[in-house]
Design a protein that fits this description.
Its main location: membrane. The chain is mainly alpha-helical. It is built from 14 helices and five strands. Strands 2-1-5-4-3 form a five-stranded antiparallel beta sheet, with helices on one face. A hairpin with a 5-residue loop joins strand 1 and strand 2.
Length: 523
């Protein structure tokens, strides 16, 4: 309990500072204020970031992420509280209501498809059994006796139905991974084929067996066996169409994220556009680094700063054209020097990242060294006095929390790591006797989206945009877009070229050489 209180006090101490430093910071800011701020023509920049529900470890103060910070920002920053971080407009309400309506429609469509498939599957499995039982129930006394061959057919029907049941369960009864906008064409065709097939068998059975009350019971059983055999062949056809057809790669898909340009390549077989989009999204959560809009804030602010011109105020009405030309020339010179500013900004940012990374590595190594020393001491204590991994993580977390806090703020990853998630990861590393390098791997390099909690994802619901029908097959040159709320994935399809290989025969005798030595030697 004391370790947890120390952790909370240490963590909360990073966001509160003395009244003297706050007052000095406000006085310094007031002294450097421009006179333009009085008339409202130039106000301070404010950024509001909507955060996930979980409390982040490092706060959400956008001013901490600006490039003008020095290395001692933690001692001079003023924490301002009391403002709201969440806002909603009429457009947001309309969008939320539309999403709810779409989700209700998708749920109805999904459950309707599952209901139809379940009813049809039940009909398929009960039909052969009904073919065999109905004559026994309706005209049992008139039937011919069932001989040895007929009884052997019962065993054949039973085992074939069991094999069909297992194969159907393995192929069709899977938890759906996504809700597609259109039906799966091959699956729908198979359902229609099965329905027509079973309906035709029932029609023939009703006309030729039920109406005439056929007494040849062995022929009736063979008729049921032929139905089961045909259903097994349809199941093989379903395996070919649904599983085997798409295994051979035929197309290469280039996936580009619209915001930062990160791209990946994937090879796919014969699939429809909507199923190819589903494969792309499954690989996106695994291969692409998590989307971080905070990394784009610096570039956008820099571009806005360079694009903003200087304002010209014509008070007397004289020499306005000369001032305009002078200001245009000054703006042109400013744009010419923008690449130097970008170079020095990136160099300074990289220097601060390397510096705080080194501090973090040293702090974590010292904390893990302390854990090893604690483990050696705990082995000498009674079993009731030993600490569990959670308590050990809370004990060493304050020693590394400040360095980790600064590093995540500098690299703009603070919204993805809450205090609770870091403590859980630390206790997991302690439980499994992992090294400090293994603990830091999650924070030093941004990981894929699956590495983080679902509440931290910026992409949960996607919209497929395509000029072609989403049920059509992939073709060379097809482009479709997967859109979410904050960014989109642009997918370009290219067909794998036809490769022609030729063989060249090399005679083994051609590898023989002759070494000629000169009899004369140099003296």
């Amino acid at each position: 309990m004391s370790a947890a209180m120390d952790t909370e006090s240490t963590y909360s101490g990073y966001s509160h500072y003395s009244g003297h430093s706050k007052k000095a910071h406000r006085q310094g800011r007031d002294r450097h204020k421009s006179p333009r701020s009085k008339d409202g023509s130039r106000s301070e920049k404010s950024v509001t970031i909507q955060t996930p529900p979980a409390e982040p470890l490092l706060g959400n103060d956008a001013s901490r992420a600006e490039e003008g910070q020095d290395d001692n920002w933690g001692e001079t920053t003023t924490a301002i509280t009391g403002t709201s971080e969440h806002s909603i407009s009429q457009e947001d309400i309309a969008r939320i209501s539309k999403d709810l309506e779409d989700s209700v429609g998708l749920d109805c469509k999904r459950y309707l498809g599952l209901t139809v498939a379940a009813v049809l599957g039940l009909l398929v499995f009960l039909t052969p059994i009904a073919f065999i039982l109905l004559p026994q129930i309706l005209w049992r006394d008139d039937l011919e006796p069932c001989g040895t061959v007929c009884e052997g057919l019962f065993i054949s029907v039973a085992f074939k139905l069991l094999i069909l049941l297992i194969g159907t369960w393995a192929l069709f009864f899977r938890q759906p991974k996504a809700d597609l906008p259109r039906v799966f064409v091959f699956r729908a065709l198979l359902l229609v084929l099965i329905f027509l097939f079973v309906f035709s068998y029932w029609l023939f059975y009703g006309v030729r067996i039920l109406d005439s009350k056929d007494t040849n019971y062995q022929g009736i059983v063979q008729y049921a066996v032929s139905l089961v055999d045909a259903l097994l062949f349809i199941h093989y056809l379903a395996i070919v169409l649904l599983e085997l057809r798409q295994l051979q790669p035929m197309f290469t898909l280039k996936v580009v994220r619209s915001t930062d340009g990160e791209s990946r390549y994937y090879s796919l077989g014969h699939l429809s556009i909507q199923r190819a989009a589903l494969v792309v999204l499954e690989n996106y959560y695994r291969d692409f680094t998590v989307y971080n809009p905070a990394l784009l804030t610096a570039s956008k602010s820099r571009a806005a700063k360079h694009m903003a011109g200087l304002k010209v105020y014509n008070v007397d009405g004289n020499n306005a054209s000369g001032q305009s030309r002078a200001m245009i020339a000054a703006a042109a010179r400013r744009r010419d020097s923008s690449h130097n500013e970008l170079y020095y900004e990136e160099a300074d940012h990289e220097r601060r990242v390397r510096k705080r990374r080194a501090r973090l590595v040293v702090a974590v190594e010292e904390a893990f060294t302390h854990i090893k020393r604690l483990q050696a001491e705990e082995q000498q204590k009674a079993p009731g006095e030993m600490m569990d991994p959670r308590e050990a993580a809370q004990a060493i977390f304050p020693s590394m929390a400040r360095a980790l806090q600064k590093y995540l703020r500098t690299t703009r990853q603070q919204q993805y790591h809450s205090m609770e998630s870091i403590l859980q990861h630390l206790s997991f590393c302690i439980t499994n006797n992992m090294t400090p390098k293994a603990f830091l791997e999650r924070y030093l390099n941004p990981g894929p989206t699956l590495q983080y909690d679902r509440d931290r994802w910026f992409s949960k619901q996607w919209t497929l945009v395509s000029e072609e029908a989403v049920t059509s097959a992939l073709q060379d040159g097809v482009v479709f877009v997967l859109k979410c709320l904050d960014f989109s994935l642009v997918v370009n399809v290219k067909k794998i070229p036809f490769i022609k290989l030729s063989e060249e025969f090399i005679d083994p005798k051609s590898h023989k050489f002759v070494l000629r030595l000169q009899s004369e030697t140099s003296v």
